[in-house]
Amino acid sequence: MAKLSTTTRAALRENFPHLARDVKSFPVREGEESWTLHEVEELAAFLLEDKERLERELAVADQELSDLLRNSGDGAGDDQADYGSSALEREQELTLVNNMRDLLAQTSHAVDRIRKGTYATCEITGLPIGKARLQAFPRATLSVEAKAREERR
């Protein structure tokens, strides 16, 4: 486990003032050890850093997409291949921006769940999500079983 910097610890205290209390109520699956403050601090720090990174990258990507859309009519030729290539580039950029927005929304939701003390609880079943699942994918909001049921539908 990595040691958290003083700056990171200050950010954690600011964003999650009740974390030391809340971590005790984060559920675990049968056979798992209880969450430790350090484990949740590491996940929370990762999510906060990732949120900041995604916000910066999204601002840049939004600007690039705006520029691309604004300049879509500009070009030397009226060749259909040029139009097709430009349309494909715009579509790829739009897909990238939308995926980034989705990831940012998931990250923000995970941060909010930690802040509210509801982290590690499945949003559908109310059962524990599982430490291993959250350590692999800290944005998870559903247990493995609930996610499998959702994907079958």
TrEMBL record:
Zn-finger (dksA C4-type) residues: 122-146
Keyword Zinc annotated: yes
Highest taxon above the source species: Bacteria
GO molecular function: zinc ion binding
Keyword Ligase set for record: no
SUPFAM superfamilies associated with the record: DnaK suppressor protein DksA, alpha-hairpin domain
The Zinc finger DksA/TraR C4-type domain, residue ranges: 117-152
InterPro entries for the chain: DnaK_N (IPR037187), Znf_DskA_TraR (IPR000962), Znf_DskA_TraR_CS (IPR020458)
Signal peptide: none
Region annotated Disordered, chain positions: 69-88
Keywords in alphabetical order: Metal-binding, Zinc, Zinc-finger
Pfam families xrefs: zf-dskA_traR
Protein name: Transcriptional regulator, TraR/DksA family
High-level lineage: Bacteria, Bacillati, Actinomycetota, Actinomycetes, Micrococcales
